Amino acid sequence: MHMIDLISKKRDGFPLTQQEIQYIIHNYTQGLIPDYQMSAFLMAVYFQKMTNEEATYLALAMRDSGDVIDLSSIPGIKVDKHSTGGVGDKVTLILGPLLASLGAKFAKMSGRGLGHTGGTIDKLESIPGYQVERSVEDFIAQVNEIGIAVVGQSGDVAPADKKLYALRDVTATVDVIPLIASSIMSKKLASGADAIVLDVKVGHGAFMKTEEEAVKLAELMVSIGRLAGKKMTAILTGMDEPLGHKIGNALEVYEAIETLQGRGPKDLVEVTVTIGSHLMLDSNLAISLDDAKQKLYQALNDGSAYKKFLELAKAQGGDINALKDPEALLAKKRIAILSDKEGYITDINALDIGKAAMRLGAGRETKEDQVLLDVGVDLHVKIGHYIKKGDTLATLYVRDKGIEEASNLIKHAIVIGKEHKDIPLIKRTIK
Ligand code: URA
Questions:
Q1: How many domains would you assign to the chain?
Q2: Which of 257, 250, 252, 187 is nearest to 224 (CA)?
Q3: CA of 268 to the centre of ligand 1 (A)
Q4: Which of 50, 169, 176, 180 is the pocket-test mutation for ligand 1 (most atoms within 8 Å of CB)?
Q5: Does the residue 426 lie in any domain?
Q6: Averaged over 62-83, what is the pLDDT?
Q7: What is the pLDDT of residues 168-184, one digit of tens each?
Q8: CB-based contacts of 404: which residues, under 8 Å, 6+ apart?
Q9: 159-170 vs 18-29: helix axis angle to the nearest 10?
Q10: Are residues 352 and 293 in the same domain?
Q11: For residue 58, is it within any domain?
Q12: Are 28 and 82 found together in one domain?
């Protein structure tokens, strides 16, 4: 087999076989196919796309390029979730302890944030002492002991995807549904869970701007997961405005704690409980979605989910006394953004709010950037709220970085109009 023939085959619109895709991924990971040939191949895929079969072969080849975590020494069904990335998305911090408090096995490897979306690992590091690095043995032992572990990617998971994603990033080939689907699913399949719920975000703060694109991505990921023997669900959820109110690492831990104590914002609770209800059913811990939801709400309201969160933090070295006063983890300097109009909030551009938090230092513009854990944005309004002139729209938690730019982004992101608007949050479920 020769790479040049496979590039021409794809360029001319013919589907590749499983063997051919394995050849490309294996040899590219080994350094035997140079970046210039792989770039040409990626551009051919950009224009000719891939069939669902090809995307599945690609996901499987990338999964097999590195460690595949074996969770079989944890009895029962292991669950995982993945979000395609949103602003203020702190669902994992709540969902994990919530499910574990009801008997599920939540074995999660998470990533760091890049660009306007945050990463669970950065958020967890705002808990003083919390260790995100764990050996696979310790990860498994912790899930066996307390039902949950949330760690950074351990071992060498899907190295082919790492190399390919970096190349896509600089060759304008990120934005291709089969490449996104196989990239995400290669890592999910390598992480070893039996049941996976994908939260596919749709809206201007998300990767997928339209519902049509999001459905295509979701259906393809569900199909790849199912062919690999996993229980799969994808839920399309809105990212037309940030999820919850707080954006920034310690701010999101703060809001997660409020939610785990039964005081969470409606949209955040709704997304968490919807995802959780499918994983409860997949784990045989409920007899119907309604039964699952009832159990989940109860665990949020009776303190058991919060108790499990403290157990998780403690097991990973976190200082749980610091969590009793999460306000102390936030930057002391605060700036209020006031409304200069009266009316209904008709839009909150999640992308711009995410960028504002990033400019303050909460996110990374490049992989090498250090994040500031205590800065960010607390939005006081949601779409549909009515506000008066002089009301506070948002509070910025700042150090000395990006204040003016962030303030301008927030002022432009929040649109005030005359009509009351209500947008559905849970758009679709794909099984
Ligand atoms: N996230 C991933 O992990 N891969 C992609 O290709 C896009 C988003």
A1: 3
A2: 187
A3: 23
A4: 180
A5: no
A6: 96
A7: 989 999 989 999 999 99
A8: none
A9: 80
A10: no
A11: no
A12: no
